[in-house]
Design a protein that fits this description.
mainly alpha; Helix Hairpins; about 70% helix; about 0% strand; globular
């Protein structure tokens, strides 16, 4: 699976370095970080709605859109995919990492 993500990230990086006319990715880079972040937010909301509606095909599509836009954001910020994959791998090695939630005394 990482090959698929790396291939996509490489295409995104190539569009950043050598914009191609008609490329949506190049358009996002041209518009800048604010536009990219707006799209990440929109895709996040659409993913949540699709998941809530329980339509797997729609949810998979929205997750894919969100991952793509997150990767464009990463490229804009010069965050390598390898850094994110390494962090995910590090987190995957943890055992017993359930966070303790703060309990509030509602009587006081």
């Amino acid at each position: 699976m990482n090959d698929t993500l790396q291939t996509l990230y490489d295409v995104i990086l190539s569009r950043k370095a050598e914009p191609q006319e008609g490329s949506y990715t190049a358009y996002l880079f041209d518009k800048g970080l604010d536009k990219i972040l707006k799209k990440v937010g929109e895709e996040c909301a659409e993913t949540i709605i699709a998941a809530k509606n329980g339509m797997e095909e729609d949810t998979v599509g929205e997750i894919s859109d969100l991952i793509y836009h997150l990767m464009v954001m990463m490229a804009e910020l010069d965050i390598p995919l390898s850094a994110v994959l390494a962090e995910l791998n590090r987190r995957g090695q943890k055992i017993g990492n359930l966070k303790q939630f703060h309990v509030t005394d509602k009587e006081s």
